[in-house]
Amino acid sequence: MTTTERPQGQPSRRIEREPITELHADTDIRRAALVATCAACHVEEDALLSHNRERQLADARKIFCYLTRTVAGVPLNRVAAMLGRTHASVYYAAETAAEQMQLSYEFRDKAESAIELFTHLLNRGHEL
Question: What is the C-alpha to C-alpha distance for residues 26 and 79, in angstroms, rounded to an integer?
Answer without folding.
Answer: 9
